[in-house]
Amino acid sequence: MEVVNAIGRRKAAVARVYVSEGTGKITINNRDLANYFPSSILQFVVKQPLAKLNVAEQYDIKINLVGGGFKGQSEAARLGIARALVKINPEDKAALRAEGFITRDPRSVERKKPGRPKARKRFQFSKR
């Protein structure tokens, strides 16, 4: 099996994911998963697609992450891994879609509008 690549995005984070056959090692920006994401919750989020399909020990995964914060990066990595697994085995798509791992979350920060302090907040109004 050659290297399969996919891209996952979430908010401002972009994850380029490269999946190859291996022993289950996940490397993010040349660092170990536990080193890059010390929080066990974020590690769990990244591993969710692999756990759902019971293929955690079959593939080595290299991820290049840029932009965003910890939460956005972990969810971008999850989407990228799910897309790569679908490229490897298209029959897994239904199982991953049922869990919501294939859907790109479109929510992002709303832009600030002119004449307002924030996107929706208005300056204080005084009648008199």
Automatic annotation (TrEMBL):
<keyword id="KW-0689">Ribosomal protein</keyword>
<dbReference type="Pfam" id="PF00380">
    <property type="entry name" value="Ribosomal_S9"/>
</dbReference>
<dbReference type="InterPro" id="IPR020574">
    <property type="entry name" value="Ribosomal_uS9_CS"/>
</dbReference>
<protein>
    <recommendedName>
        <fullName>Small ribosomal subunit protein uS9</fullName>
    </recommendedName>
</protein>
<dbReference type="InterPro" id="IPR020568">
    <property type="entry name" value="Ribosomal_Su5_D2-typ_SF"/>
</dbReference>
<keyword id="KW-0687">Ribonucleoprotein</keyword>
<feature type="compositionally biased region" description="Basic residues">
    <location>
        <begin position="113"/>
        <end position="128"/>
    </location>
</feature>
<dbReference type="GO" id="GO:0005840">
    <property type="term" value="C:ribosome"/>
</dbReference>
<feature type="region of interest" description="Disordered">
    <location>
        <begin position="105"/>
        <end position="128"/>
    </location>
</feature>
<dbReference type="InterPro" id="IPR023035">
    <property type="entry name" value="Ribosomal_uS9_bac/plastid"/>
</dbReference>
<dbReference type="InterPro" id="IPR014721">
    <property type="entry name" value="Ribsml_uS5_D2-typ_fold_subgr"/>
</dbReference>
<comment type="similarity">
    <text>Belongs to the universal ribosomal protein uS9 family.</text>
</comment>
<dbReference type="InterPro" id="IPR000754">
    <property type="entry name" value="Ribosomal_uS9"/>
</dbReference>
